[in-house]
Amino acid sequence: MATVTKENIGLLHEKLTVKLEKTDYLPSFEKALKDYSKKANIPGFRKGMVPAGLIKKMYGPSLFTDEVLRSVDRELISYLQNDKVDIFAQPLPLETDIRQLDVNNPADYTFHFEVGMKPEFQLPDLGKANITEYKVVITDEMINNEIARLQNRYGNMKDEDTVNSEENVLNVIFSEVNENGEETEGGITKDNSLLVKYFKEDFRSNLLGKVLNDFVIVQLDKAFDEKELDFILGDLGLDKNDPEALKKHFKIQVTKIGMLEKKDMNEEFFSQLYPGQEIKTEADFRNKVKEEIGAYWTSQVRNQIHDQVFHQLVDHTEIKFPEGFLKKWMKTQGNAASEEQQAAPKSEEEVEKEFPTFLNQLKWTLISDKIVQDNAIQVNPDEIRQFAKQQLFGYMGGMGNVADDQPWVKEYVEKMMKDRKFVEDAYNRLQTQKMFEWAETQVKPAEKEISAEEFTKMVEAHQHHHH
Fold it and tell me: Which CATH number fits domain 3-116: 3.90.1150.10, 3.30.70.1050, 3.30.110.10, 3.40.50.150?
């Protein structure tokens, strides 16, 4: 009868020894041999009439090895399940000489494996965590800017003959030229659309009074401030870090002059933006815009709280790892591109370089698993279906009032439910969302007012620090 024993060889690092007796694998081997002889197709013999000795000589060694290894796997899995041994990845075989397996002399065999044990650990008390809930102050300026943006977005473009305002919209052609204004052979040519006020303030006077087909010749860094210059360089396919690119000369020719007529602040405009919401007055409209700006910043603040919770959990949860086992696993197994593909071994240097990142990811996985298990967090198929619908409507610009039970919507959702990658991704995203929703019920954040600009700078600085 087979036995499995365990021996500690390091921190959370165990050696498993599987001892097989002949009786554990021989009956199944003999049955496999018999089954094979019934199916074997060998020239010169009728099917099912091949002598057993010939079958054993031809196929015995491989069938024998298969049955022995299958018996080992079965014993290992049974042991891990029955003893509830919680391990990382899968057992790694220690050196075993497969050549010891001899179909002509069946014997008792011993196999050795090493496993990395998952550690036990405690999560920090989120109720005592130092978490800040920022309250972004919605100013009149923010409301005015958003209203102006909406008026422009829904406004009408009127053609004009002459550039007479910083608010004029210019359709232009950028053509690369030399210092004398002669077009460069094979140079860059690109259409663009720009407001006059996108140019440097001291350059704008060069554009006022221009008519269709007039042009100016400029060096890019003389015509545009840094923010617009980055955009223009990117559009022209130039590297903003290349000093030579900034000095290039371009002819900018005006092909169309327009003036955006802002949408009037009236009930028709309010209804166009918010159909069926009974917004009649400018005051109602301003309140609605303020509400939407507030909703946006509330979602940003919520994301930022989630980030604080993440760091609280990762930085204040102490977890010990079987590092020796994990490095060995990374070296031999951790580089496979897919489940089916055998990994190419990593070098010691590659393992050491990648190990800190790998360990951080593993730590977050363990923390996530613990939160999910301790709080019975589940994601059901209907929630994944709803996620697919939301994603579909998001792709299609919100879809207004389209009913989500239309046949084509159902058809799309069911198609996505058959896509394994989509389902796994949706499951993970929804599970993570529910984890942070649970965390929100645990924390007791201190409120702090902040301006939108300060909040944005703080988030950008944090992201920069982590890249």
Answer: 3.30.70.1050
